[in-house]
Design goal:
This protein is α/β, with parallel strands linked by helices and about 260 residues long. It has helices spanning about 15-30, 55-65, 75-85, 115-125, 145-150, 165-180, 195-200, 200-210, 235-255; strands at about 5-10, 35, 40-45, 50-55, 85-90, 105-110, 190. It has 9 helices and 7 strands; from the N terminus they run βαβββααββαααβααα.
Length: about 260
């Protein structure tokens, strides 16, 4: 096996977990069992097994700029992490900073999910509960809502209940737009979640070719499910802000798709 430093990068609910499990299974077959699962949140090298909250990683994430400006030339924490990595790592909090580590001796598999499918998943996975309208809203140090609001000043004009869905779209935009800027590099491969769901074998063969590891049909595909729905409950006001922030990028990444929005 020629690749020993592999990063999976995406946002939450975009297929990072599914892709991570599939790649990890292949790497185990080739003698590389190390899998660091969300190192900015958890400590562990066995995927989702035996995880311990990584307080130092959380502190690093919250103290380092979410969207570094031109004056930031490196990310020392990530430099050390990559230097010590021998295996696979999955991140949902690193895409907006990829410029600072993409030149390292790594291979990056970037997985992206269509914007409205992503928002629909957020509604589905965090059920409707009173005035929260089903959105993933846990004000706290790791969720970055206030930092995102500082990047998008228009959010400050919204009420406390109204801005939650737009912040999710902004999170999607921040991480995927920075990855889009790096996607033509030789060490970056883009995988669309919908393509992985509709043709897992074909997409895994692409990933294996990119990582220079043999593909085997013994890989368990039980976690792969049909292409998800884009049915999402949004107001017209939500859609206008979401489109202003992320609509162009979504259409660019899915230029071959007819992007129907189902809002209610």
């Amino acid at each position: 096996m020629t690749t020993n430093r592999i990063l999976i990068i995406g946002v939450g609910n975009s297929g990072t977990k599914l892709l991570g499990n599939l790649i990890h299974e292949l790497m185990i077959l080739h003698g590389m069992p190390i899998y660091a699962y969300e190192p900015l949140y958890w400590s562990g090298t066995e995927g989702e097994k035996n995880l311990v909250l990584n307080k130092a990683g959380i502190q690093e994430h919250t103290s380092f700029p979410l969207l570094p400006d031109a004056s930031s030339l490196s990310w020392p924490w990530m430099d050390r992490f990559i230097e010590n990595l021998c295996g696979l790592a999955k991140f949902i909090r690193a895409g907006s900073r990829v410029r600072l580590f993409v030149d390292k001796p790594i291979k990056i598999v970037w997985i992206v999910r269509e914007l409205y499918s992503f928002l629909a998943s957020m509604q589905k996975n965090f059920p409707r509960c009173g005035s929260t309208a089903g959105w993933h809203h846990r004000p706290g140090e790791y969720d970055d809502f206030e930092r995102i609001r500082s990047i998008f000043p228009e959010f400050n004009l919204l009420s406390g209940e109204e801005w939650r869905v737009e912040v999710e779209a902004a999170w999607w935009y921040l991480h995927n737009s920075e990855m889009r800027n790096q996607q033509n590099r030789e060490n970056v491969l883009r995988v669309r979640y919908e393509d992985l769901c509709s043709n897992a074998v074909s997409q895994l063969k692409r990933v294996c070719e990119f990582l220079a590891i043999p593909f085997t049909t013994s890989t368990t595909l039980s976690g792969v499910h049909p292409v998800p729905s884009r049915m999402v409950r949004l107001s017209g006001h939500n859609v206008r802000i979401i489109e202003r922030i992320a609509g162009d990028l979504n259409r660019e990444l899915y230029a071959d798709e007819e992007l129907n929005q189902f809002c209610g």
